[in-house]
Amino acid sequence: MRDKDVRDIVGGLGLAAVGLFAVVYGQRYEFGDLNRMGPGYFPVVLGLMLAVLGVLIALPAFFRRGEPVTVAWKTFGLVMACISVFAFTLKLLGLVLATVLAVFVASLADNAPGWKWRVATASGIALVTWVVFKLGLGMVLPTWPWSP
Amino acid sequence: MEILNGLMLGLEAAMNPQTLLYCFIGVFLGTLIGVLPGIGALATISLLLPVTYHIPPTAAIVMLAGVYYGAQYGGSTASILLNLPGTPSSAVTTLDGYPMAKQGRAGVALFMTTIASFVGSMLGILVLVLFSPAIAELGLKFGPAEYFAMMLLGLVAASALASGSPAKGLAMVVFGLLLGTVGTDINSGQARFEFGIPELTDGINLVALAMGMFGIAEVVSSINQVREGEVREDINMRTMTPTREDVRQSIMPMLRGTAVGSFFGALPGTGASIASFMSYAVEKKVAKDPSRFGNGAIEGITGPEAANNAAAQTAFVPTLSLGIPGDAVMALMLGALIIHGIQPGPLLMTQRPELFWGLIVSFGIGNVMLLILNLPLIGMWVAILRIPYRVLFPAILIFISLGVYSVNNNTFDVYMVAFIGAIGYLLAVMKFEAAPLLLGFVLGPLMEENLRRALLLSRGDMMTFLERPISAGFLAFGAAIVLWSVWTSTRSFLLERERLKDKMA
């Protein structure tokens, strides 16, 4: 199994699943007919097409050799964490602290050792962000946790 | 004559100090983000959209356009110096640009790509000026069936020309179309696929989708990448001067590149990236000694760079004269126009001629600015590229998050970027291309609308698409592309089977 074209199999089946979901979930919207297309028409038809395409992609892949897939899981997780942390803390802690925290989390993705550069980068980016977004573009955001 | 009048009008509109200032800001920013890998015209234009709310429409569009074609100038810098493309359309420049740098000819490469970009742009503008009025005329005859057929052609072209199998490209297009249905259906007022989340009733945020699919995936794959030995060459006017041979070898590639680029730029569904790849293929085909390619052949960089700039200019042809975006960036431009209360389409030229021609004249001015800027500033771009990626990428992530946040001022959109980024990265790892998805997403609502209307007018008769000549023409072209790609994939599938059979025997 390992030497099959995993990419197309997983991708194809994944998309087929999405398509199937659209067809099933789309049943709750009125379908209508060709003359007067209801809100459900387009999504259900598209879902069907996607499901068929997904299968068409996955099937030949079972008979093909493919290269192994490498997913950078740790990097991936940390990038997701960085953005989520930022979203979570933005209104709570204000722009500066949210940026420092998020950048620190993101910097863990890079393998270079040490913590000093991470702190420096976090502070530097927080400063640049404040200058560009608050000062330059005038965005409405609390700067510190105690700001209005 | 009409064209000359238009240009005069445009000159008047473009020459005011405010417009010129925003033009400068646009092209400067554009080159900067073009130079930086991982952040491109798409992300920057999305970030700047909210800023444009406060400035007059002409200045706004001039600035955004400046970012777009400016990025095509800067993209080659990282390709040549770091073997990392600054923009997707500069990817092909790494093939011969980086070898040139290793041979100590980085300065010449940078100089020639700037000239090639300028030539491509200016000639592309010429095409834009000559063809837009004619196409707008044609566009007045377009009904919903024609618009639908044209968009379908664009999507088919996008999926067929995507790298990887056309089936995967098509699947991404359909996925994008499906994602476009999320939100409130205009005709019936029915909220679709919002899963009870109020923020989704307006649909998925375009900026979040674009950033998530392109930006996040790009960043995740670039972290911890070993940057090949950096070029330590001293870049100054002396090292940048090309030899007579270089110039002689580059003239035809630039012209051919412009032709290729102008064509693919104007076609909906294809853009600067396809243009540059095609140009490289063309140059390799017509070269007397194809083996030089990949080892520092100057045609391998001047052709594609002229092509991507020409494509960036002619991409405005369908956008301005028909109101149909050729790619995701054009879709954002359209969005910006609509926000300012301007309705793009065939009537734009007659209703707002000063905007249309002013924009075109600003392209010319902008490109001249870029030529003057880029030559002395190459040193500065080189210095910026020396910033280690581990300092750059967190900044990119924060900028993306804030940019998305600024559209609706709500944190839900930022979570969306993370979620979409996850899907985008996984899809990228599985080698499913993001561009067709974005195009499908942008065109989806428009296509549904036009399909509905066309069928309403024809009382449910699907034959209307074939009965109307222009629509039939688009569909025929689309069918030809589909048949061609089915044929090439069947052929490679059969070859594969033969090979396996031989192995078994």
Verbal overview:
The complex is a heterodimer of chains A (148) and B (505). The termini of chain A are far apart. The mean pLDDT of chain A is 85. Chain A has two domains: 6-61; 73-136, no CATH class. Chain A is 66% helix and 0% strand. The longest helix of chain A is centred in the middle third of the chain and has 35 residues, at 73-107. Chain A has helices at 6-25, 41-61, 73-107, 116-136. Chain B is an all-alpha fold and 505 residues long. Chain B has one domain (2-225, 245-504). Chain B has a two-stranded antiparallel ribbon. In chain B, strand 1 and strand 2 form a beta hairpin. In chain B, helix 5 packs antiparallel against helix 6, helix 6 packs antiparallel against helix 17 (353-385) and helix 9 (206-222) runs antiparallel to helix 18 (389-408). Chain B is globular. At the A-B interface, helix 1, helix 2, helix 3 and helix 4 of A face helix 8, helix 9, helix 18, helix 19 and helix 20 of B.
Taken together, the total number of domains of chain A comes to 2
Classify the beta-strand content of chain A into a percent band: under 5%
SSE string of chain A, helices as H and strands as E: HHHH
Classify the secondary structure makeup of chain A into a structural class: mainly alpha
Q: Which geometry of chain A do the CA atoms define?
A: flat
- Summarize the amount of helix of chain B as a percent range: over 70%
Low-confidence stretches of chain A: none
Category by helix and strand content of chain B: mainly alpha
What is the residue-mean pLDDT of chain A, rounded to a whole number?
85
Indicate the proportion of strand residues of chain B: under 5%
Q: How many individual domains of chain B? A: 1
Largest sheet of chain A: none
